[in-house]
Amino acid sequence: MLKILIADDEELARQKIRMFLGTRNDISEIAEAANGYEALKIVEKLSPDIIFLDIEMPEMSGFEFLADAGKTGASVIFTTAYDRYAVRAFEVNAADYLLKPFTLERFNEALQRVTDRRKNPESINPDEILRFLKENISKKSPFISRLTVRKGSRFIIIDVKDILMIEAEGNYLKIITAGASFLHRSTLTAFEESLDPEMFIRVHRSVIVKKDAVKELEPKFNNEFTLTLSNGLKTTSSRNYYSAIKTLLP
């Protein structure tokens, strides 16, 4: 029987994996962690056989978690929306790499590979694993098109094209659309990597705006600007991002 740890900052993602695991009869225990620090504590107590590990989590990434955890004896299946980490995942001896959104069939395929590997590790050919990862990595855009956020007891799905501005607020981001705002747990730098740079631009260390949402730029001092967005909201750019602001100017 297998002990499982699910480490992902998105509750909806954890629920999906737990639901998929519920279709199996070889699981004895399932634990969940919303960040790398929680995962480290659970690893010490649970000694999991398999870890489903998200990569981009606030405060501590999946790779940083693995570095801190050391040799746990667990097989790691990465679960992420980004295919650009596949080779690095292989370098840290990942058992598999599930690209979100994944199906139950693909999920069970990953678990089968892990159980086979645990029973007979000598039979695993590294070249075969690398080839398998490459064959199963999507060719789709590396940038997200939708975002799931939690509001109370509900999960809200936001089209990224509807986002006007993102502001950093501690360990959270304030996602602003034309008619609402939502909190999303992430760092601004990590979230910026998931956005299409042709669509979004960082104008301050704590602010990202959608390019075509900027309707007015008012110069201030020291190469700073006041930006007015399509919904009337205003924000101020930093002089450190003046080169980015210049791309918005005619």
Short description:
With 250 residues, the protein is of the alpha/beta class.
What is this structure's SSE topology?
Blueprint: E1 2-7, H1 11-21, E2 27-33, H2 36-46, E3 50-53, H3 62-69, E4 75-80, H4 86-91, E5 96-99, H5 104-119, H6 126-136, E6 146-151, E7 154-159, E8 163-169, E9 172-177, E10 181-185, H7 188-193, E11 200-204, E12 207-210, E13 214-219, E14 225-229, E15 234-236, H8 242-246
Parallel strand pairs: 1-2, 1-3, 3-4, 4-5
Antiparallel strand pairs: 6-7, 8-9, 8-12, 9-10, 11-12, 13-14, 14-15
Helix pairs in contact: 2-3
Would you kindly provide a written description of the structure presented here, covering whatever features stand out?
The protein has 250 residues and is α/β, with parallel strands linked by helices. It has two domains: 2-136, Response regulator (Rossmann fold, 3-Layer(aba) Sandwich); 146-246, LytTr DNA-binding domain (OB fold (Dihydrolipoamide Acetyltransferase, E2P)). Helix content is 30%, strand content 32%. The strands form four sheets. The protein has a five-stranded parallel beta sheet with strand order 2-1-3-4-5, sandwiched between helices. Strand 14 and strand 15 (234-236) form a beta hairpin. Helix 2 (36-46) packs parallel to helix 3 (62-69). The chain starts with a strand and ends with a helix.
